[in-house]
Amino acid sequence: MKNIILTTCMLLISTNILAAAGDIKSEAIKDRDTRMEWWREARFGMFVHWGLYSIPAGKWEEKEFKKGGVEWIQSKAAISADVYEAELIPQFKPKAEFAEEWARIAKTAGCRYLVFTSKHHEGFALHDSKLTTFDAKDTCGRDLFKEIVDATRAEGLKVGAYHSVIDWHHPDAYTGGEFKLPFVRGTTNKGRDNAKYVDYLHGQTKEIMSNYGPIDIVWWDYSSGQCRGESWRAKELISMVRELQPQIVMNNRLYRSPEAGWPNKHDWSEGFSIDPQYGDFCTPEQKIPPNGVEGVDWETCMTMNTTWGYNQFDHKWKSPETLVHNLVDVVSKGGNYLLNIGPKADGSIPKESIERMEAIGNWMNINGDAIYETNASPFGKPAWGRYTKKPGKIYAHVFLWPKGGKLIVPSGDIVVSKAYLLADRKQSALPIQQTEKSLTITLPAEAPDLTASVIVIEHKHDN
Ligand code: GLC
Predict the structure, then answer these.
(1) Is there an atom of ligand 1 within 6 Å of 285 CB?
(2) Mutate to test the pocket of ligand 1, among 222, 251, 339 (most ligand atoms within 8 A of CB)
(3) CA within 20 to 30 Å of 271's CA: 27, 151, 347, 358, which one?
(4) What is the tens place of the pLDDT at every residue in 166-193?
(5) C-alpha span between 166 and 449 (Å, rounded)
(6) What are φ and ψ of residue 415, in 5° steps?
(7) CATH assignment, 385-459
(8) Distance separating alpha carbons of residues 18 and 25, to the nearest angstrom
(9) 330 in Cβ contact with 322 (< 8 Å)
(10) What is the reported pLDDT for 14?
(11) Domain 28-370, CATH
C-alpha cells in the first residue's frame, strides 16, 4: 500500500514537473475520444472569413484580383501595414446584428459549429485586445469577437476561432525571406525581433482563451516548412490553450512537417499521422482526400466560389448540388466539411451564399440523420453515390437514380431487415432481395430528391 501511495505521489510530482517545463500533458485515448465526440458527430460546420480585407473585396486602386483568396490583398497588392491600416480602418463599419445573421444561416444550413477568423494574416484582431490598438474595440468601439461568439452560442452551435500566426501588421513578426512565409512585398526581416511577436501571439491567444467563456475550437493558420512548431513556441502555446480551455479541439497547422506542400496533400499521404500532443485534426484545403485520411480526424475546408474573403468579382459559385455532394462525399470518407462564407465589409452575407446555405439546409432537414453521428462507408464509393453508416443502419445516398429501378448493394453477410426512403415519413418498406453477397432494392420510378435521395438500410447489429 505504502508503495502504491509513494508511486502515485512520484507520478503526480513528475506530471507537474513536466507541465511546469512547458511540455504538453499526455491524455488517455479514452479522454481524447470523449473530448472529440461532439466534433466527430457534427460533420458539418461553417467557416467565416471576414476582416478589413472584406472592404476592398478584391480591388486595390486600379488593380483587380478576380479570383482566389482576396483576404491576401495586402500581400497581393503589396500594401504596407501603415497604408493598409490608414485606408481601411475608417471604412470599417459593421452593421448591427450581423453576427446573428451568420449564426442563423449556419443553423439553417444544418451546421453544428461555426469557425470565424478572429485574426487573419492582416493582423487585425476582432477581439478586444489590450496588446494593440489594431483591434475592433479600439477602432470601431465594439468587441466583435464577443458578438460573434455570443450569437453563435445563442443558436446552440459550437464556436471556434481561426487564428493566424502569420501577422503582416506586427513590426516584429517574421516575414517571407528565409522563413518562406507568405509576406508583403517590400518588407524584410531586417531589424525584426520575432521573439517579441511570438510573445504578442501568445498574449492575444491568452486574451481570447480567457475572456469569452468556452471556446470549442482553435483553428491555427499556418506554418511553413521553415517556420513552424517551436518557431511559435508551439508546445507552450498549446499547453496554455489546453490549460485555459481543457475541452478545446484544435487543428494541426502549428506543426506542419517540412515536406508538407500546399494545399496539405501531405495530410492524406500514406502513413500520415498527427502527434496528438500537437493537434487533433488535419485540414485538407479545397480538396476531398480520395479515400479519407486513415486513422486521423480530418476536416476539409472549402470555399463556395474561389475565395475565402469576400470578392466582388468572383462569380464562380459551386452549385448547391455540388455542395451537398461534397458534404456527403466527405462524410462518407469519415471527415467533416467546413464550408466557407465571406461576408461583405458590413458583415452581410452575399445572397449567393445565403441561397446555397438554405438549399443545403432544405436537404439536411430531410436527410440530416444520414450525416450527423455517422461514420465512413462500409462499402467504398459506388458510381451512383455514397454510403454512410451508424450502428444498425447503412445510408445509401443516391446521386444518380438507377434507370432500371434497382439498386444493388454489396451487403456481404449483414442481415438486412428493411430498406426505406429517408424522405418517407411512414418509412414504408421498399421491396428487397438478399442473396449471399448482395442486396437488391427496388426503388420507386422517381427520385424523391434530384440532388441526393437517401435510402436507409436497416440490419441486424451486434452491439
Ligand atoms: C490558407 C490561406 C488563407 C485561408 C486558409 C483557409 O492558409 O492563407 O487565406 O484562410 O488557408 O484554410
Answers:
(1) yes
(2) 222
(3) 27
(4) 999 999 998 877 777 888 888 888 899 9
(5) 44
(6) -100, 110
(7) 2.60.40.1180
(8) 7
(9) no
(10) 37
(11) 3.20.20.80
